[in-house]
Amino acid sequence: MANTSNDFYLPVYVINLKNRVERCNHIEEQFHEKPEFELTWIDAVEHSIGAVGLWQSDDHTFTPAYTKEYFLVNIIQANEQGSELLSGGIGGFGSAVPVSANRYWVDWFWSTQFIVVFKTLFQKILDYDFKDTDTADGVLCYT
Predict the structure, then answer these.
(1) pTM over 0.85
(2) Which pLDDT score, from 0 to 100, does residue 28 have?
């Protein structure tokens, strides 16, 4: 999906197996008419180790409460607070401390369907020595 708007947009990298056409269609549907995002598709490679396979999947769904403005304000404020990662939804977490009316710092989390990676964490990810036993959320929580 190409962004034809002159407005600011956020790059989104979607990892998908070529044979998972239904996931591709789902993601296209979720990001349709959301010009604040520009999708880049990355072909995933199948892997026999499930933990490695988690790095190679995506199944995000926007809720009806989503708005571009709310999302961008949270990115800006999270960046100002020194965040390295902003999650668009988590499946579980440990302790949570409010850092604003709508954002929490958590000590660990599950799920990486939709995350914003800030520059400082991005470099740590590039420098990390991945192991076959690593999970996406595990590495992101402790990197």
Answers:
(1) no
(2) 94
